[in-house]
Design goal:
By secondary structure, the chain is of the alpha+beta class. The protein is built from one helix and two strands, in the order E-E-H. The protein has a two-stranded antiparallel sheet. A hairpin with a 6-residue loop joins strand 1 and strand 2. The termini are far apart. The model has no long low-confidence stretch (mean pLDDT about 80).
């Protein structure tokens, strides 16, 4: 019997589960939002 193993990751920010390639793309969106939030008040 063959088993198909899948590599998955869970997002730390929203608790959704993604494939290994999907989690990388998904985390980039969260990290970009955090970077924007952190720089909003610094340069004004």
């Amino acid at each position: 019997m063959e088993q198909n193993l899948k590599s998955e990751g869970k997002c730390y920010f929203c608790d959704k589960t993604f494939s290994s390639t999907g989690i990388n793309r998904h985390l980039k969106t969260h990290l970009q939002k955090k970077a924007i939030e952190n720089t909003k008040g610094r340069f004004t």
